[in-house]
Design goal:
Length: about 525
């Protein structure tokens, strides 16, 4: 045993350096590693343009040593143990590679394609009368949804907007969408995980069993282990959804109404609350046309008040209902809520869609973007949690001035409640009960503009720091150790202790650039 003070100083020296490419050793050879691994699955060498060397962000490319397609948890444990016997090899779990800044990459290291394990777990359980599903860490949420609904008429409660993301990938961050105000993020909706730690141990963990690993892995940016199975809470799946968009010219009214809706009891509000900012213009992507939900809808700008500024605000809400509900019942429930809100009365749009169609709505956006060639182009996205106390100032400067012409894609903004998040997880949040997620989902063609947009993201974050705004990056990405410390602030020592306990050689998730690989195992 080492004294805590020694451990701390040693960890900080050995692990807390900025990440560096210099660690990869060029003469590593996939066939040698392959022989030593004795995998059930496969390993292949990678080029810079291969799956494992790039991600959805399209900003970074690296050359990993090998891409492993494990057959299951044992394979993953073997890979990590083999890496731990070297002085330098790192291991990155790759969910669906939908990170923006290379978080699922391993330069010169081994990338584990979690999708190859997606079929390994799918089991319905009833615990104390409530339904749960055990799913693979590498499963896509869209498949979990489709299978749960078609087989059991059940569905998870908390989602992301887009579902071609893996269970392990979103649980390593948080997993946020329009249901989060009610059920918390996806990290609040799992009760058990199976994790392979950075020591190659396979551990089942929960709130009561190996709880430090359970809470560490949730929102842990892949730093403490690879999630191979998750137990997810389920609820009865609704049949249908009334999806509604209403428009505001005043930010104060938009925030007052969205906060009103997210703080009401279940049954006295909508089932989904999101929002976005749009440019007050006829721009087809950034302006008025982005609001309508159906080709038959017409956005008539004559209804916008003269007092409106450079941007408008759209609140998107949804109400679940069943096939047996009469249309008038749904209308009454919707109108009863809408009449309490202060939106521009003539700018209201609504459609009825099936529950699956609603949850898979971004898939249609993907198909459209693929057809236009902008799905595979770079995405310099920025996601921030901004506290209620800072959101007016953020709107005034960032939305109304810096981004008044839009970002070539959605600029999401909607409130979340801190009390629905578990403070024991690794996620860090701004202060105060109400905070907003702001997501700048930029779609840009390849070219020099990408650097400019990355620079604009930096400028926004710099401005938030300079003005002393209460905020945290979501899906964080930093270059320096000082930035990571500032991000975690008083939770930094807990994060480092967890790293020390579960991945003492800093083998895992090197693309997050938090800890430097070390060959000294202090345990
Ligand atoms: P990857 O990008 O492959 O991995 C992310 C990180 O997790 C990496 O560090 C990786 O090493 C680690 N990791 C991956 N799998 C595991 C595992 N099994 N165990 C441990 N660590 C693992 N997020 C939201 O919260 N809400 C949204 O509405 C939302 N919408 C999105 C829409 C689009 C179009 C895109 C591209 C992203 C969106 N995201 C959203 C962000 C998304 O949650 C992150 O990109 C997340 O990383 C999940 O993606 P992934 O499964 O591809 O994981």
């Amino acid at each position: 045993m080492y004294p805590v003070s020694f451990i701390f100083i040693t960890i900080l020296h050995k692990l807390s350096f900025p990440w560096s490419d210099a660690d990869s050793i060029p003469d590593d050879d996939v066939s040698t590693i392959s022989q030593s691994l004795d995998l059930q699955g496969t390993i292949e060498s990678c080029g810079i343009m291969g799956l494992a060397g790039k991600d959805f962000g399209g900003i970074y490319t690296v050359k990993p040593l090998g891409l492993i397609k494990p057959s299951g948890t044992e394979d993953i444990a073997r890979v990590i143990k083999a890496a731990s016997r070297t002085s330098h090899l790192t291991v990155a779990a790759r969910g669906n590679g939908h990170s923006i800044n290379g978080q699922a990459m391993a330069d010169g290291g081994l990338v584990i394609d979690m999708r190859s394990t997606e079929e390994n777990h799918f089991k319905l359980l009833t615990i104390d009368g409530s339904p749960y599903i055990d799913v693979s860490g590498g499963a896509l949420w869209e498949d979990v949804l489709k299978r749960c609904v078609s087989m059991f008429r059940l569905a998870p409660r908390s989602w992301t907007d887009y579902l071609s993301l893996t269970v392990g990938g979103t649980l390593s961050n948080a997993g946020v969408s329009g249901q989060t105000f009610r059920y918390g993020p996806q990290t609040s909706n799992v009760t058990e995980l199976e994790v392979v730690t950075g020591k190659g141990e396979i551990i089942v963990c929960s709130e009561t069993q190996n709880s430090e690993l359970f809470f560490g892995a949730l929102g842990g940016l892949g730093q403490f282990g690879i999630i191979t199975r998750a137990r997810v809470k389920l609820q009865p799946a609704p049949d249908m959804v009334r999806r509604i968009r209403i428009v505001y010219s005043e930010f104060e009214e938009f925030t007052r109404d969205s906060e009103f809706l997210v703080t009401r009891e279940e049954g006295a509000s909508f089932d989904y609350v999101e929002g976005f900012v749009l440019s007050n213009s006829d721009d087809p992507i950034n302006g008025w046309p982005s609001v309508t939900l159906d080709p038959d809808h017409e956005f008539n700008p004559a209804h916008i008040p003269q007092t409106a500024g450079s941007v408008l605000y759209c609140l998107e809400v949804a109400l679940h209902y069943s096939h047996s509900d009469h249309a008038s019942t749904v209308d009454a429930a919707v109108n009863g809520l809408l009449e309490r809100l202060g939106f521009i009365r003539r700018l209201k749009f609504q459609v009825n869609v099936s529950y699956l169609e609603f949850l898979l709505r971004v898939k249609q956006v993907e198909e459209h973007a693929r057809a236009n060639g902008i799905w595979d182009s770079p995405h310099p996205w920025l996601n921030i949690f901004v506290s209620k106390s800072s959101i007016v100032e953020f709107d005034r400067t960032v939305f109304r001035k810096m981004l008044k012409d839009g970002v070539g894609g959605p600029m999401l903004i909607y409130p979340l409640l801190r009390s629905k998040w578990d403070e024991r997880t690794s996620v860090v949040l701004p202060e105060g009960e109400i905070f907003y997620i702001v997501a700048l989902l930029r779609f840009v063609p390849q070219g020099p503009s990408v650097e400019k947009l990355v620079a604009q993201n930096h400028e926004i974050v710099k401005w938030c720091n300079k003005e002393g705004l209460d905020f945290k990056l979501y899906l964080p990405h930093y270059q320096s150790n000082e930035d990571w410390k500032r991000h975690f602030r008083n939770h930094w020592s807990r994060f480092v202790e967890r790293k020390f306990s579960f991945d003492p050689m800093a083998i895992l998730a090197p693309g997050q650039r938090i800890f430097k690989r070390t060959h000294v195992n202090l345990n």
